[in-house]
Amino acid sequence: MRESFIRNGKKITLIDLSDRLENETSSFEPSGHKIHYSSHKEAIPVTKKFLGLDESYWPNGEGWAVEEVTLSTHSGTHVDAPYHYGPETAGKPARTIDQVPLSWCYGDGVLLNMTHKQAGDEITVEDLQAELERIGYTLKPYDIVLLHTGASKHFKTAGYDFKHPGLGRAGTEWLVDQGIRLIGIDAWGLDRPFNVMAKEAKEGKGQFWDAHLLGREKEYCQIEKLCNLDQIPKPFGFRVSAFPVNIAKASAGWSRVVAIIEEDI
Question: Which of 3, 32, 107, 175 is deepest in the core (most CB within 10 A)?
Fold first, then answer.
């Protein structure tokens, strides 16, 4: 979804970077979900039982609609808290999603094009630095870095969680050391696919889940399962809003992530 409007003398464009949660994909989602829809007429037995109001009290005999959703905190587009990576960060209790500073979740966005990387590839420090040099940008603390891999085009098909490149420990650490506290990616995970990492771990070639595990040493958050990054028209000069739902003691929270572009008119 992309929406532009004029307000207070500025043209504002909002680009929805969030994947839509729907039952059509529930059969193959690694983090499963199910949505049950109750119709307006199904509300009548409820209002009759608890309030004594039958269909005669409702226009056309129709009450409210409601949905019941069963899902993981890691279903759909979401923000991972440091607690997801492990119980501690640098020897202190890791922050859960309700403890993550809101200031980390709103800031200047930086879009890095990694579409040249193949599924299973590692996005390296050199890749990040080369792209920043190409776009002529120097990272500053609390920028929100968005990695555009192109993998979101597979979200509606089974096996999409194996079709992306991802950060390793080195690339993640380099970004965190620049003062970045929120990294986003248009893929199922920030790391490379599980099948690639598991194979390497079994062969003694690397640490499984090493980008995430950096969060046990250095504090950061990440947004997973972004989409529509190709609709952002410029690599910087926009803002990102990624506030997670406030869930007590949780390792993640769902987020309606939006890119915000303001232009004088």
Answer: 175
Rg (CA), the chain: 21
pLDDT for position 130: 98
CATH of residue 163's domain is 3.50.30.50
Q: Which of 70, 86, 120 is the last residue of a domain?
A: 70
Are both 156 and 208 inside the same structural domain?
A: yes
Residues pairing with 258 in the sheet: 16, 241
Residue 195 gets the label, from left (phi > 0), alpha (psi -120 to 50) or beta, of: alpha
Residue 23 lies in a domain: no
226-240 residue pLDDT tens: 999 999 999 999 999
Exposed, middle or buried by CB within 10 Å (0-12, 13-18, 19+), for 182? buried
Q: Do residues 143 and 111 lie in contact, with contact meaning Cβ atoms separated by under 8 Å?
A: no
**φ, ψ of residue 175 in degrees (nearest 5):** -65, -45
| CB-CB contact of 44 with 63 (8 Å) | yes
The pLDDT tens digits of the residues spanning 148-166 come to 999 999 999 999 999 999 9
- Give me the pLDDT at residue 253, please: 98
Is 8 part of a structural domain of the chain? no
What local confidence, expressed as pLDDT, does residue 1 receive?
Answer: 85
- The tally of domains found in the chain comes to 2
CA count, 13 A, side-chain hemisphere, 2 = 9
Nearest CA to 76 among 247, 219, 257?
257
61 plus 81 within the same structural domain: no
Spatial CA neighbour of 79 closest among 231, 185, 168, 6: 185
* pLDDT reported for residue 82: 98
Please report whether residue 233 resides in a domain.
yes
Q: Any idea how long the chain is?
A: 265
Structural domain span for residue 148? 73-264
